[in-house]
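Researcher: Sequence of UBX domain-containing protein follows. Predict its structure.
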Amino acid sequence: MSLHHSRVAARERLVDAPLRTSAIREREEKKREARYPTTTIRVKFPDQTQLERVFPSSDKIRSVYAFVRNSLREDVKPIKFVLYLTPPRRELKVSDLAVRDLSLYQLGLAPSSVLMLSFFEESLNHRDVPAPLSEEVLSQLQDLPPPPVFQEVVPDTSNATASKSSDASAQKKVPKWLKVG
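Model: Prediction complete. Tokens:
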């Protein structure tokens, strides 16, 4: 019921909100954009190797493509590739007019995003093929830190008899609306 009330209240706020001029909307958008001056981009290769770099949020997607291309081996640089987001798959092509003139912030990549990389040459898109990175980039390779290990909570068994009696009484209670007859 509270979900319904919150949706109704949100709709009423939108209906009753004052109209805003384009100048006011642009000023509000600039304020939101100023919250994220930089964007961290991770590019994930098919073998799960990742490249990471921080870009200004005002940069275009072509600067990310240039960074990736400069990180590749010389023999792989001429091979075309595409960067995309998932799910659902949304390709960020430099040739796409709707994408190339937008900033990283306008593309929804700020403050951080993971982009997947797919080569047009299928032989490079297999998990068992190592990422074709240059020797300079491979020399800076670091393993990701291991995920944190959470310890299990051990239940306190010192007061087991009291909890068993309360569990038994909780199982016997049946709500009135569920009783038959």
